[in-house]
Known about the structure:
Elements: E1 3-9, H1 13-24, E2 29-33, E3 47-49, H2 53-62, H3 67-74, E4 75-81, E5 91-96, H4 98-110, E6 115-119, E7 122-127, E8 134-139, E9 144-152, E10 161-164, E11 167-170, H5 182-188, E12 193-200, E13 203-205, E14 215-217, H6 233-237, E15 244-248, H7 251-259, H8 282-288, E16 296-301, E17 308-312, H9 320-328, E18 338-340, E19 343-350, E20 367-369, H10 379-397, H11 411-421, H12 446-457, H13 462-484, H14 491-501, H15 511-516, H16 522-531, H17 542-553, H18 555-573, H19 590-599, H20 604-608, H21 615-626
Helix pairs in contact: 1-10, 2-10, 2-12, 3-4, 7-9, 12-13, 13-17
Amino acid sequence: MSSYDVIVVGAGHAGIEAALATSRKGHKTAIFTIVLENIGQMSCNPSIGGPAKSHLVKEIDALGGEMGRNMDKSFVQMRILNTKKGPAVRSLRAQADRKVYARNMKKTLEAQENLDIIQDMVVSITFDKDKKVVTGVKTKNGLEFLAKKVIIATGTFLNGLLYVGDKLVEGGRMGELSSKELTNSFIEMGLEIKRFKTGTSPRIDKRTIDFNELEEQPGETKIALKYSSRSSDEEVLAKPQLSCYLTRTNVNTHNLILDHIDKSPLYNGTISSIGPRYCPSIEDKIVKFRDKDSHHLFLEPEGFDTNEVYISGLSTSYPAYLQEQMVRSIKGMENARIMRYGYAVEYDIVNAKELDYTLEVKKIKGLYLAGQINGTSGYEEAAAQGLMAGINASLALENREPLILYKDNSYIATMIDDIITKEIQEPYRMFTARSEYRLLLREDNADLRLSKYGYEIGLLSKEEYDKVLEKEKAVYETIDNLSNTNVGTSNKVLVELLEKYNETIKSGISLKELLRRPSFTYQDVKEIARYANVSYQIDFRDDIEYQIEVFIKYEGYIDRAMKMMEKNKKLEEKKIPKDFNYDIMTGIGREAKQRLNEIRPYNIGQASRIMGVTPADISVLIMYLDGRLS
Ligand SMILES: Cc1cc2nc3c(=O)[nH]c(=O)nc-3n(C[C@H](O)[C@H](O)[C@H](O)COP(=O)(O)OP(=O)(O)OC[C@H]3O[C@@H](n4cnc5c(N)ncnc54)[C@H](O)[C@@H]3O)c2cc1C
Ligand SMILES: NC(=O)c1ccc[n+]([C@@H]2O[C@H](COP(=O)([O-])OP(=O)(O)OC[C@H]3O[C@@H](n4cnc5c(N)ncnc54)[C@H](O)[C@@H]3O)[C@@H](O)[C@H]2O)c1
């Protein structure tokens, strides 16, 4: 019987990060998947990033994960969204060449030392005789494998059912087997299982689209946009890009959908499970927003070597013939031919309240769950959990303290805190609004926030970490220098400011104060600094210069957010003993008592975020902890 330190079940976005983390840390790892060719498959939209999701990718990169690096090698388009908004919500969005992304990931896994890749379906998890410690897995091919840690990252595959209108097939994704037995292991452990659903859009043949009337959306080719601080600017700038195109649904599309609503498995009662509120199907959008007579659609190329074009925004489970009519009712697609039909998928998830902050199942030592199985939705959310499960399984094997991130230093922590503390009622996706610290958790400073952990854990090299320290030093030193340098009131400066920027100044103003004004960018201030003949360095890499500008322009907001963070930190620091007896408390609501008993929060901060626990309950709890009540 083969024996491993870690077994990872699933080679999707979560499983990949988990397996790379454990094997890179020197632990003998096996990763199981149903089909080898589909390692790192993007089930739906071949895109990574967008608001809050790009933040997650940059955090994954700062901790030494792979998603960002792989995207930098596999994209067909990169651009920044929300350029007119503040830096907290500005975000990178990249389109992948779907096949290249998956191939590059498979190559990375195959080249990894300490990692075996095995195509076999895991059918059950094995435990010690008391069912308290995981011991390994059994597979469909009748094999048994032993492991000290097991990470389950099976995505949408558990008892997956696929719907195209009234046509129903079993499957984890279209064309792939569903994983039918594994849920039984979770039921045996006494974990709560729920059922969620999601869906995907049709793909059409590029040759049948009339692009002439559609708005082109090219990528950014002048500035080096990338997810990983470990990719080179030259590498990303050298890559060719493809354009997306914008079109819209119209009244005819909407009428067609409404007239045949009984044909939608989502609306005729066939599917009753809960779908993603924030990435809804087109039928959901049209029923719920009846007053809107049009919705944006993006036509996104799936890669350089294919004619497949993905219709972003048209996720549907209507019958195939209606999907054709729907597509052809839209500008630019009047003669479009569908290559793959859209579908919905229904699958089992495990209620993530069963998990610890490390993503370990509380009841079973050594068993971790990561990705869509925990009720989240999205590649980035999955990858971030996979990485954290892989890191924590490794640290446990090394008898080291777990890595628990806090809501004030990452979106990763925000997501984990949300899914284990709040009862997830629908597929969970990340938003910037989910964080009260979003001004501090920008994608531009993910490396400054988290690289030290990546380095301490051993997933970032000294050289990679030094690069981040160099950025930090340059940013703080330059801010100091700019605040200590007077702009001066020479004629040359005054004329320049007035003529070029229509700005006037009084004597005594520093370069830092100038940069705080809306009319000036760091590039402008650099030019003015040259007149002042400054002796310090002012030219840096793009990311460093952007960071200096953000720090100075948003200093007031950032300071305020820091103060709020310090205040809340006190609640996080107030620990609750593991064996605290909630039952003896009086003056606290019944629901609160029950929820506290279920979740057993680690500290007052977490307790205060549990649904059903009120501020009054928290006051009582604090009094018990302080000994004022007993
Ligand atoms: C139809 C559809 C559309 C989606 N649309 C999008 C989208 O547009 N954008 C987005 O961000 N997210 C989308 N999602 C969600 C996204 O695919 C997931 O959130 C993400 O892929 C989850 O990653 P994961 O690693 O948890 O699982 P997955 O990527 O699903 O990977 C699961 C892996 O587990 C393996 N596996 C499963 N069971 C077993 C078993 N018993 N034994 C061995 N291996 C097993 C599979 O072979 C696979 O490798 C969509 C999902 C689906 C199904
Ligand atoms: N179908 C599913 O099961 C499922 C589940 C979870 C997540 N997702 C994915 O999660 C993401 C979240 O969706 P979202 O609506 O917030 O979009 P998004 O995060 O991709 O982009 C946010 C905004 O960016 C803009 N945008 C710019 N270029 C775009 C392009 N080429 N395509 C799409 N949007 C573009 C749109 O205005 C959109 O509102 C998407 O990638 C979606 O496909 C899908």
